Amino acid sequence: MNCVHARRNVLRICALLWIAATLLFCASSSNAQQKDKKKKKDAPTVDNSSANPIVPLTDEQQIDYMISEVLGAWQIGDSVRMHKDYSDDVSVVNGGWAPPILGWANYEALYKLQRSKMQQVRMDRSQTTYVFIKKDNHWLIAHDHTSVVQTAPAQAPNNTVPGSATPPAKPAGN
Question: Mind listing the domains of the chain with CATH numbers?
């Protein structure tokens, strides 16, 4: 009977060692996961805009997003929101043969003046060219050139034949 008891004791010791090894293994993998989570938390996040996107944007995507933000802010008259995407030393040229505007403060003052005079006018026939610079991983507008697109003059109908127009009437008395 002693053999049976000895055998049971050996099996119990093996079972306890197996349980201890399993618990030790689980505890060490849990610590490794917590360390990985901490590393992920400490990793620097990419800040492409004020919205802090989860997926980093390419330069082209950042610029496209910024242009849409600027146009939206321009349409609603939010110069504060516009300023975050304009350089402080921006140069602005318009299509009205006026001298260039230098600096954000000068541009903002003229923008507000123009906006107060044109509350109900839509400027959907214009062409804009931006020149961008990148400062501190953020794209800024360094130069803005906007021109009003002129519409083409009305053309004569296609069914007229050249030279078939009636000549002007002669003055009376000749």
Answer: 59-148 (3.10.450.50)
